[in-house]
Inverse folding.
């Protein structure tokens, strides 16, 4: 806990047997973490068996693969049900270091931000950390496009390392979002639509064989989805079209 606030880490897992244990061990080394929730999204390897052996961990299973977004929806719902006040998503593939959990939690606990991202771009070392060149270029292009249309100034929208306050998660219409990878982008757009501030901390980039990744075609689909989200945000703000993602009235960005 931190200042009597319960800290829950959500780990959306899919075929993560090679890195789940290492990531989980480092998560629990952060003394403020009270509980870990692992959602296994229909893995075909030993992910579920390993998850059930972990300490201070709640395990939920999707019998069939439902998608990365659906995995997060389940994880956040369980985190709230188990009394989480500050909820952090950490991928179990060890691509994002759990050592940043205290910094991200502190920014939320201090009421500076209701959402904090671990940005791979802020430190300027993404390419040296192994990020593929095409992913780096698409990341920068999409982020620039989204910032222009949405009116924010984030260094990247595409990190999978995120922390949220309970109050924020309870306000977001997550069920209106996709069950696929574009969920990551939609939730940030919803946060900005509601007028909340998003903080960022620099996160080292680590790419290796065991890291989860999506192929080029799914990356292309994701990129087009990000453009669509930004356009829908812009249309909703102009009062021309209101999608299901943006049900509530927009407030001025802080």
């Amino acid at each position: 806990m931190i200042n009597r606030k319960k800290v829950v880490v959500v780990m959306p897992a899919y075929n993560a047997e090679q890195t789940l244990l290492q990531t989980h061990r480092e998560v629990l080394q952060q003394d403020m973490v009270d509980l870990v929730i692992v959602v296994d999204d229909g893995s075909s390897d030993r992910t579920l068996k390993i998850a059930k052996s972990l300490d201070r961990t709640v395990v939920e299973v999707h019998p069939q693969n439902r998608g990365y977004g659906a995995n997060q929806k389940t994880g956040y719902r369980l985190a709230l049900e188990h009394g989480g006040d500050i909820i952090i998503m950490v991928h179990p593939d060890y691509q994002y270091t759990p050592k940043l959990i205290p910094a991200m939690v502190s920014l939320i606990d201090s009421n500076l931000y209701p959402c904090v991202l671990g940005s791979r771009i802020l430190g300027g070392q993404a390419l040296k950390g192994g990020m593929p060149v095409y992913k780096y270029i698409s990341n920068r292009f999409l982020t620039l496009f989204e910032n222009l249309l949405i009116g924010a100034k984030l260094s990247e929208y595409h990190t999978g390392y995120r922390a949220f306050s309970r109050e924020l998660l309870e306000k977001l219409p997550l069920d209106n979002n996709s069950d696929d990878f574009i969920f990551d982008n939609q939730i940030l757009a919803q946060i900005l639509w509601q007028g909340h501030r998003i903080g960022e901390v620099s996160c080292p980039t680590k790419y290796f064989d065991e890291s989860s990744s999506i192929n080029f075609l799914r990356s292309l689909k994701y990129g087009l989805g990000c453009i669509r989200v930004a356009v829908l945000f812009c249309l909703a703000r102009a009062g021309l079209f209101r999608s299901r993602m943006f049900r509530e009235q927009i407030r001025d960005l802080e």
Observations:
- The first strand starts at residue 7 and ends at 13.
- Residues 7-242 form a domain with the Spore Coat Polysaccharide Biosynthesis Protein SpsA; Chain A fold (CATH 3.90.550.10).
- The mean pLDDT is 93.
- Helices lie at 20-28, 47-52, 68-81, 101-109, 133-150, 166-171, 183-193, 216-237.
